[in-house]
């Protein structure tokens, strides 16, 4: 994608890295036992699902564009400022009830990884003239965070819709 954009544009001024998930959703344990938790959180999340999480895509997108675009921006007449914005929702998840977001420890871990990556990139890319902003646009109500009845295993039954 970065290569294709570079053919059409001299540089990218703003890059939004999105936080999302397409896999690695751990099933909830069937019973409150160590064996069931191990089955759900270790056996229930295949290793090959991890590349489909937030942090992996953010890493590749960030550096695919940044390595190209910083040079393009520096070559310009006014040294254009390149801004990288990463939605940072880990902070929002910190204050939620102590159950994993979207019933997914892999999802929760990736959110916190993005939060730390935002802070680190802000310092690392500063010498290149890249400004890193972490934004949290707010909570969007989805099936991953709907309030409802929570049982002893952390499973949520969403409230009935009118």
TrEMBL record:
Designated name of the protein: NAD(P)-binding protein
Taxonomic source organism: Sparassis crispa
